[in-house]
Amino acid sequence: MAQVYLPRSLVALFVEPPPRHLTVEASSLGDLVEDLDARWPGMADRLLEPGPQIRVHINVFVNGERERDLRTPLASDSVVHVIPAVAGG
Amino acid sequence: MRDKVEVLVGTKKGAFILESDAARQQWRVRGPFCETWPIHHFVRASDGTLYAGGGSNWYGATVFRSDDEGATWSQSSAGLTYGDDEPKVTNIWNLTPSADGKTLYAGVEPAGLFRSDDRGETWTHVAGLREHPSQPEWQPGNGGLILHSIAIDPTDAHHLWVGISSVGAFETTDGGKTWETRNKGVRADFYPGPPPDFGQCVHKMLIDPSDPQRLIQQNHCGVYRSDDGGASWTEITNNLPSDFGFPMAVHPRRPETMWVIPMTGPGEGRHMIDGHAAVWRSRDRGDSWEQLDAGLPLQNAYLTVLREAMGTDRLDPTGVYFGTSTGQVFGSADEGENWQLLADFLPDVWSVEAASIEG
């Protein structure tokens, strides 16, 4: 089960918000987004843009490495951080 | 029974609700709502539902909905896409509910039209508009290639007009399957040669609530009215001090009365002329205009009012409201004769809609 950390600004968009830290059974980043979307409908629209690909200002780190490819494999001990890009204003 | 008046304000950092009683002298501010997302348009449908549309640089475009006066919000953009091989929808610029509240239209960036028949849960692309043969040549205005004006014929739900910057006006009579350009008589001074069939920079277009053949628009190049459903336009800039401005408002019961906010031109800052804040009103469908500035700042007020940031309530006399890109909301309880500052220090105001509710 991959461990997943979600940002406050994302979970706050859902009437019944997901926890900030959860575990997900997924073999790739694409699977992870699919699982989250099934449990919290609309999650994929917030994380992905046409392609489909990860939104340009959303950063996803797997075990500390930034990944953009939805085919990136996940293992049972993977740690995934979803982090919006830092911005000012 | 006491009427409540509300002004719905969309800003760069969330949505706000300003509330007052029918006297419209004391105002309370609630918000920010919608997780402080950039909100381009914030409206109330006739069934009471609140909708707010916008776009986040991180999470994309979505439409928020509240069924409990803003206490809680859901959001959805399901179906708000041109497809995986097409440009992404980055922003919602306009939300227009049908009169019965059952259909909600969204005008988006890059320019296109979507509709929802389930209160914003899911969206369907009104694809006929982007299938218009002119579409490959559509060019953006300074604010982007945006569909910002949606007018629905109150007598025929299949009859709509839209306004796109900087493309112009379109009309459909078959529910959006096919569209025709509606820009005859509208100047496009930034083009060489005679006015083109499309490419005009409409800034705000409204329908006359009493006569769907009558439309009005504030354009990049003047103010116009149409008496034939947009087939032709007559310029009514007349004695206005500038042909440039963004918003426009029309009286809810006496549509010969309308308001505009002239601003300096595109190369001159796009703000109140000489730093003197003023709204201009016509009582004769634009044949003549009068300046209204009592209570507004008359010097050093370099305010900008954007295209969606003026609205009217339905009381008598009608209240008129506008918001500035520097966070002020001004209101008049007497059709523009006298003004007061309703709220200051808000984020940049992008939209203002007003409503009066029997309480």
Distance between the termini of chain A: 37 Å
Overall SS class of chain A: alpha+beta
Regions of chain B with pLDDT < 50 over 5+ consecutive residues? Answer: none
Structural class of chain B: mainly beta
**Main sheet of chain A, how many strands, which sense, barrel?**
5 strands, mixed
Q: How many beta-strand runs of chain A?
A: 7
What strand line-up does the widest sheet of chain B have? 3-2-1-28
Q: For the report, how would you describe the main beta sheet of chain B?
A: 4 strands, antiparallel
State the share of residues found in helices of chain A, binned by percent.
10-25%
The proportion of strand residues of chain A reads: 25-35%
Apparent shape of chain B: globular
Structure, explained:
The complex is a heterodimer of chains A (89) and B (359). Chain A is α+β, with helices and mostly antiparallel strands and 89 residues long. In chain A, a hairpin with a 3-residue loop joins strand 3 (48-49) and strand 4 (53-54). Chain A is globular. The N and C termini of chain A lie far apart (37 Å). In chain A, the strands form 2 sheets. In chain A, strands 2-1-7-5-6 form a 5-stranded mixed β-sheet, covered by helices on one side. Helix content of chain A is 22%, strand content 29%. Chain A has 3 helices and 7 strands, in the order βαβααβββββ. Chain B has 359 residues and is an all-beta fold. Chain B has no helices and 28 strands. Chain B has strands spanning 3-11, 14-21, 28-33, 39-44, 50-56, 60-66, 74-76, 91-97, 104-109, 112-116, 124-125, 146-152, 160-165, 168-172, 180-181, 202-207, 215-219, 222-226, 234-235, 248-250, 258-260, 279-282, 290-292, 310-312, 320-323, 329-332, 340-343, 349-358. Chain B has a 4-stranded antiparallel β-sheet, with no helix packed on it. A 4-stranded antiparallel β-sheet of chain B has the order 4-5-6-7, with no helix packed on it. In chain B, strand 1 and strand 2 form a beta hairpin. Chain B is globular and about 50 Å long. The model of chain B has no long low-confidence stretch (mean pLDDT 96). The chains are: A alpha+beta (89), B mainly beta (359). The A-B interface holds A 9-10, 12-15, 41-42, 45-47, 49-52, 55, 57-58, 84-85, 87 and B 35, 57-60, 62, 72-78, 80-88.
